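Researcher: Can you fold this with zinc ion in place?
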Amino acid sequence: MSQQVRGVVVTAKDAPAEVTTIVIPDPGPGEAVVRIQACGVCHTDLHYKQGGIGDEFPYLLGHEAAGVVESVGEGVSEVGVGDFVVLNWRAVCGQCRACRRGRPQYCFDTHNARQKMTLEDGTELSPALGIGAFAEKTLVAAGQCTKVDPEVSPAVAGLLGCGVMAGIGAAINTGQVGRGDSVAVIGCGGVGGAAITGSRLAGAARIIAVDIDDNKLETARALGATHTVNSRTQDAVEAIRELTGGNGADVVVEAVGRPETYEQAFYVRDLAGTVVLVGVPTPDMRIELPLLDVFGRGGALKSSWYGDCLPSRDFPMLIDLHQQGRLDLGAFVTETVGLGDVEKAFARMHGGDVLRSVVVL
Ligand code: APR
Ligand code: ZN
Ligand code: ZN
């Protein structure tokens, strides 16, 4: 029996995100229905609303979520009814060439639920990143559910589902930040802030936060930055070189996704250092760099997909570190709001005064 619940839907480009009735089918083979307890408001949700990701309206927004498994379909063994789970948007297939080579974090064929959730009139919904969790319940592939310690608050746990994992993973998984490293993080929103936290966790000796907004730099300090640079008033490249003995940083995380910040990242990296691009550019953006510098500076220019995370490995581990007091995931929750407040949260995000608003159900 399908069921009707409330969910936040955008019916057309730039239309308001509105709470409406949605229909959730019973889980089919390999699927699960999850009762959502909390879901963070991410920039990607706003991009969906603005038509920046696709034209498959209506979208069911929300994708940084935690909740409890309500029911599972045939053949599901990885999670069971009653499990507290964090949802992920990259359920690995186990079959593709990346999975077969033992690198499932790069899975090239991730999947979502096969059945569709709909509006009451039967119109199929496109769930954001295959999740759609600004809703009382959602239907996902069972592989999108990762069981974690149920003692942790859902508002905190859900954040691992996207931005915070992307940032921590950019530093730890992609950038391989190690003890004693110097790190520069360009752009200190939710993702960059998490890269700072991740770098501290990994034992970086020096963590330089770069942003154009002093409020963000203040937050960055609270998250573990040892130095801050306002690149509106200072030359970021010069300032970072100065803070690193004239050399540049071992690892630079670019968490904005723009050509000018990528170029800064490229030039503030020490010889043989690593640049990690975790900010997402738009299709029109281009960079031009002297090829001789690309060669001559050596090292690695990497991109980080979702922090190159493996949810089954990384989510429980980060929750454990949080529970032990070694990783303050709560610092990313600026405010908790209701299901009807997603539009207001978008406005606050636009104003730049939140790391994360989290919808709590
Ligand atoms: N130089 C330095 N910082 C900048 C610049 C710039 N030119 N332009 C913007 N910023 C800062 C903003 O002030 C803000 O603090 O980058 C930060 C971006 O943060 P958010 O808007 O909160 O975005 P976030 O959720 O962190 O995501 C960052 O990663 O996942 C992607 O699509 C996402 O591209 C985005 C990026
Ligand atoms: Zn795969
Ligand atoms: Zn997201």
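Model: Folded with zinc ion in place. The mean pLDDT is 96.
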